[in-house]
Amino acid sequence: MKALIFAAGMGTRLRPLTDTMPKALVPVCGKPLLWHVMMKLKSAGITEVVVNVHHFADMVEDYLRSAGDLGMTVHISDERDLLRETGGGIMHARKYLQPSDDGEGSGRERHFLVHNVDILSDLDIGWFESQVRPDALATLLVSSRKTSRYLLFDSDMRLAGWTNVATGEVRTPYPDLDVSSCRKLAFSGIHIISTSVFPVFIQEGFGERFPIMDFYLKAAASYPVYGVQAENLHMIDVGKPDALDEAGRFVLSRMGDDAFRDS
Questions:
Q1: Distance of CA 260 to CAs 30, 101, 255, 257, Å?
Q2: Residue 263 falls within a domain, yes or no?
Q3: Which pLDDT tens digit goes with each residue over 20-68?
Q4: Mean pLDDT of 99-127
Q5: Pure H helices in the chain
Q6: What percent of the chain has pLDDT over 90?
Q7: What CATH number is given to the structural domain containing 226?
Q8: What are the Cα distances from residue 190, in Å, to 15, 21, 70, 120, 123?
Q9: Does residue 218 belong to any structural domain of this protein?
């Protein structure tokens, strides 16, 4: 299975740190967030990754060149000309994520992992991959953490919509959806997507710049998008400066010395 790491964002929530560096290179215990995510993927047996770049793109590329052999094949998906958001970023990286043969691919090549660069977790990626159903267009890692915005799932954990509980806003492809009957779960920023998604982007009318969640919410009525909840998942969203201390404690307690080895 290949992986795409979202590293192109402006990192506005991490200012002032991201006024002088990309979010991907913000250090946690002396190592960039990008390094921590790459080593997490490598430990799961992923050996080919795509990193998209936009904000301080040169710095990310320079880091990857100077980091030496990380034991992974790394492709750069260059978004310097246009920050394409999450869905457009996936579409733009298509040439790296599609199966290597001319058919539909086989085994792990039938889908790919997408991982935000600012998420650290103790997720067992192999277990997460094992939860992917054969008919799934996408499988989203979700949790019961407190937030104002939730994804809505039916009894089969199929995506049915989205809600902002603070404002009461609901988005769904189902006009008669009973929100009270749905499970409300928070998206983690980690998902596994079928390689069959690329023609569906076009069929559903999505172009070069769009949020992936907009696509999921439109496509969910016709294409199965499922949620998977990991028990006792410990996850840190390193999106704000005040999360860096917690991220450091997480790295030290969960990963120990292994967090600082490249292999």
A1: 9, 36, 9, 6
A2: no
A3: 999 999 999 999 999 999 999 999 999 999 999 999 999 999 999 988 7
A4: 82
A5: 33-43, 57-66, 85-92, 94-97, 125-130, 197-203, 212-219, 244-250
A6: 80
A7: 3.90.550.10
A8: 23, 23, 22, 10, 10
A9: yes
> 258 vs 37, 40, 43, 76, 255, CA distance in Å?
13, 10, 10, 26, 6
Q: Which of 157, 151, 154, 167 is nearest to 214 (CA)?
A: 151
Beta strand pairing call for 48-53 and 73-78: parallel
User: Cα(39)–Cα(46) distance, rounded to whole angstroms?
Assistant: 9
Q: Look at residue 197 and give its three-state secondary structure.
A: helix
Q: How many structural domains are present in the chain?
A: 1
Total-model pTM: 0.91
Domain, as residue range, for 230: 2-258
Is 45 contained in some domain? yes
| Per-residue pLDDT at 101 | 60
**How many of the other CB atoms lie within 10 Å of CB of 13?**
16
Q: How would you classify residue 46: left for phi > 0, otherwise alpha for psi between -120 and 50, otherwise beta?
A: beta
Cβ pair 3, 40 in contact under 8 A: no
Rounded distance between C-alpha atoms, residue 199 and residue 206, angstroms: 10
Residue 101, in any domain of the structure: yes
**Higher pLDDT pick, 78 / 16:** 78
Contact 142, 131 (CB under 8 A): no
Question: In this structure, what token pair is assigned to residue 63?
Answer: 């880091």
